[in-house]
Amino acid sequence: MSLQMTVRMSAILAFVLLSVAAPRAQQTYGGDVYESGANASITATAARDAFVAGFSAQLDGNIGGDGHAAGFDVDVDGTIGSDLYASGATVTVGGPVGEDVTVMGATVRLRRSSSVGGNARLMGGSVTVEAPIAGSLVASGGTIRLDAPVDGDAALNGGDLIFGDGARIAGTLTYSGPEQIDIPASVAAPERVRFVKTDAWSAMDDWREIAEGSRRSLLPTLFGKIAAFAVTLAFLLVIAALFLTVAPATVESGRRRIVERPGATFLAGFLTLSALFGLVPVSAMTLVGIPLIPIVVLLIVLGWTFAYVLGAYALSLRVATAFWEVSESTVAQLLVLAVGLLVLAVLNFIPIAGWLVNFTIVLLGLGAIVRLLTGWMAGTPRQHLAETPADAPAA
Questions:
Q1: Is 34 in a helix, a strand, or coil?
Q2: Which of 52, 230, 234, 347 could form a disulfide with 354 if both were Cys (CB 3.0 to 4.6 A apart)?
Q3: How many helices (H) and strands (E) does the chain have?
Q4: Domain boundaries, the chain
Q5: Which of 43, 80, 85 is nearest to 64 (CA)?
Q6: In whole angstroms, what is the distance from residue 223 CA to residue 220 CA?
Q7: Measured between alpha carbons, how far is 80 from 28 in angstroms, rounded to an integer?
């Protein structure tokens, strides 16, 4: 996965978390249109880019710039003038896209009513391409079905490759999988076909060796460690500032869950993190699940980061208010969080105990996020969450 794609998908997933925490009506800023909620849909014309996120996300408008869509069930039937970035369990693209398409999901489909003016990069457990592609195609999935013309090169990595009557590849076809298969001459001439044998477990071993070699060759200096810590601290504070500004009531609800019901919150975080980590080896056991591993890993990284910020914020504010009266301003709360993060970083120098404290912070934060999400899906009123007295039992 390229750095650009990782950054784009990270931004989309962060937008999903924000949208679930604080659903809002459609808004426009500087020509960009934003919509989020349980059933989010953009049908209006956007002069620039469009962002839609929700459990059900639809992008049906006429978008002049880039389209961004994320959710459990994602449908893109509108016109996208530039690039499209989408992520979800099920992603279906039915409208024309002027330039590139980048999609990740369990099930990915480009319908016949769609068209891609540039390159298509698709990854999922099942990938179906029925739309013509003017550029190149890069697809990875347990099952890949191509039933449309590709004007450029194609790189297909899948356990099962299926070619329909409409499949045509004008450039070079490079495909990889456990076994070589017969490629119809109508799809690509034999001299333009290349096969690369892959094995799932050996590929994972190669990744591990590369990672271990990188760690050995990039031993950080003291200055490098300090600089890395400063950048990490600033990054965490930026995340905290974003959530405190956009969804202060939701952050407060999460903090209360940690303070008032730490046991239940810790258990919820432990079970959730165990389930996320368990998805990695389970996905690796089958070719169908291997393309989903980067999505799971990305979810773990994002969940860990947001959970740590929320957990550290709740603990820092709890300790600070026990000794001083902390202002309700965002700046004051960020200062308290900054001090708390510094203390937690110092605790890491204490063998075992320091790591356990920081790990507990992550589990508490993740548990609070999960309890917020499950409460929201169960229909818990947000007004109630925002106004529950501090001494009342959490939902």
A1: strand
A2: 347
A3: 9, 18
A4: 3-198, 208-387
A5: 80
A6: 8
A7: 17
Phi, then psi, of 241 in degrees rounded to 5? -60, -40
CB 46 within 8 A of CB 57: no
Question: Where are the strands (E) in the chain, listed by range?
Answer: 24-29, 32-36, 39-42, 50-59, 62-63, 67-76, 79-80, 84-93, 96-97, 101-110, 115-116, 120-129, 137-146, 149-150, 154-163, 168-169, 173-177, 193-197
**Other beta carbons less than 10 A from residue 197's beta carbon:** 10
Q: Which residues does 227 contact at the CB level (< 8 Å), separation at least 6?
A: none
Say which DSSP state 190 is in: G
Angle between helices 330-347 and 353-377 (to 10 degrees): 140
- Measured between alpha carbons, how far is residue 294 from residues 1, 56, 122, 123, 280 in Å? 8, 22, 13, 10, 9
What does residue 215 show for φ and ψ, rounded to 5 degrees? -65, -40
Q: What digits encode the pLDDT tens for the residues 215-256?
A: 444 444 556 556 666 777 788 888 888 888 878 888 888 899
H or E segment to which residue 125 belongs: strand 120-129
Token code pair at residue 52 = 């839609």
The percent of residues above 90 in pLDDT, for the chain, comes to 29
**172 CB neighbour count, 10 Å cutoff:** 16
DSSP 123-172: EEEEEEE-S-BSS-EEEEEEEEEE-SEESS-EEEEEEEEEE-TT-EESS-
